[in-house]
């Protein structure tokens, strides 16, 4: 007797949908791609996709959140690997500018969705909630890194997170409008300038 196939768990289904959506959106473009195509690429039914994501917008927002979370973890890992915090911040800034240029889709998509959200209260609420989670995660990472490297910040972790995200989005806009205008090391130099070590007691 053939054993019954195990149904994927909800987290497994969600992961399959996200992986398939990333492939389909890369091949077809986000606007042109459909939920049906994502479902087919994932080997799932359309209903299975909607069991994890209520709409295509929610799926796109989840992908954006996952992308930013991955970049955040890479940045924290890069800082942890450096003994000198200043050098680490320069490296992180350069890495973020390089990622912005190599794959500009996600930050440009954030800008496009922010414009859409101005006319769509439901989308605005969903985007707001995800940005709040991102700021909280970034603030926690900033606090941990500052403590680990004994850095002094000119303001608290929550405000520092807001500054870092504003810089990232602003640099993305400037570089999209004027490619190459943002020096590769500028982001890192700004980050290093914001974090200082306290002077040793005299």
Automatic annotation (TrEMBL):
Statement: the UniProt record of this protein carries the keyword ATP-binding: no
A GO molecular-function annotation: DNA binding
PROSITE patterns: HTH_TETR_2
Record's keyword terms, sorted: DNA-binding, Repressor, Transcription, Transcription regulation
Gene3D superfamilies found in the cross-reference section: Tetracycline Repressor, domain 2
Protein name: Uncharacterized protein
Naturally occurring in which organism (per UniProt): Prauserella muralis
């Amino acid at each position: 007797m053939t054993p019954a196939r195990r149904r994927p768990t909800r987290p497994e289904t969600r992961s399959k949908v996200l992986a398939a959506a990333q492939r389909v959106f890369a091949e077809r473009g986000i606007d042109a791609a459909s939920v049906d195509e994502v479902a087919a690429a994932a080997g799932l039914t359309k209903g299975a996709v909607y069991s994890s994501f209520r709409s295509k917008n929610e799926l796109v927002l989840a992908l954006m959140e996952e992308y930013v979370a991955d970049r955040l973890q890479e940045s924290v890992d890069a800082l942890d690997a450096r003994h000198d915090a200043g050098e680490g911040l320069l490296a992180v800034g350069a890495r973020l500018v390089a990622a912005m240029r190599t794959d500009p889709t996600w930050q440009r998509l954030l800008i496009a969705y922010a414009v859409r959200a101005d006319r769509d209260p439901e989308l605005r609420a969903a985007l707001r909630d995800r940005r709040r989670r991102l700021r909280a995660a970034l603030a926690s990472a900033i606090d941990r890194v500052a403590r680990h490297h004994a850095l002094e910040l000119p303001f608290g972790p929550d405000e520092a997170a807001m500054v870092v995200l504003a810089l990232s989005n602003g640099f993305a806009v400037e570089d999209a409008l004027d490619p190459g205008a943002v020096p590769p090391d500028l982001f890192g130099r700004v980050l290093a300038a914001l974090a200082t070590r306290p002077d040793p007691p005299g």
